[in-house]
Specification:
The chain is an all-alpha fold. The protein contains ten helices and no strands.
């Protein structure tokens, strides 16, 4: 077998068509319009993910596969509202549009977040959007993992400013980790 044939077999195993169709269905649940979903090329998305460092690719796939840890996903009895003070539910679709979360992103990364969920999920394969998404995803999961008790107490007591501080610290640290993104050249072969 040639190296190109082996690479194709590996890519098919790591990125099967059934996974792609599952991702497209998840994009629909996040509210991405069908016109935008139809413009996503599997081969381009796959090549783009393969060009990213593993830490960035993980955050991208975590977000694309609808795998954020929220109280509604974990069937938590004590479901929380938005951790940052919105009246919205603790749901992934909300966090991709939460004005509080995305307001601070530009202050930290220097990149203006896109207006649409399509852009915020970096489905446009733009590096600034990948950096913003990695920053948001990582910071969200860090504060959930390290400060869930404090977050719950702040939500119950309506001290959302304290959650904003946790978010800003985690997001700033995440930018230090994800901000200097260097990618390999994309090959669509």
């Amino acid at each position: 077998m040639r190296q190109g044939q082996i690479q194709k077999l590996i890519e098919q195993a790591l990125f099967p068509s059934c996974l792609w169709f599952s991702l497209l269905a998840r994009f629909a649940r996040l509210g991405i319009p069908i016109e935008e979903r139809n413009n996503i090329e599997r081969s381009t998305a796959q090549a783009f993910i393969n060009s990213l460092p593993p830490t960035h690719a993980f955050q991208l796939l975590r977000s694309w596969s609808h795998s954020w840890l929220k109280t509604c996903r974990l069937h938590d009895v004590n479901r929380l509202p938005c951790l940052f003070g919105c009246l919205a539910k603790d749901e992934e679709a909300h966090y991709f549009n939460c004005p509080i979360v995305w307001l601070h992103v530009v202050q930290i990364s220097g990149f203006h977040p896109g207006e649409s969920c399509f852009q915020r999920l970096a489905l446009n394969c733009r590096i600034p959007d990948v950096i913003n998404l990695c920053l948001v995803s990582h910071a969200f999961h860090v504060i959930r993992a390290n400060s869930l008790g404090a977050i719950r107490g702040n939500v119950i007591s309506q001290r959302f400013g304290e959650n904003h501080k946790l978010w800003l610290r985690a997001a700033t640290a995440a930018f230090a980790r994800y901000g200097g993104l260097e990618v390999r050249p994309i090959s669509l072969v």
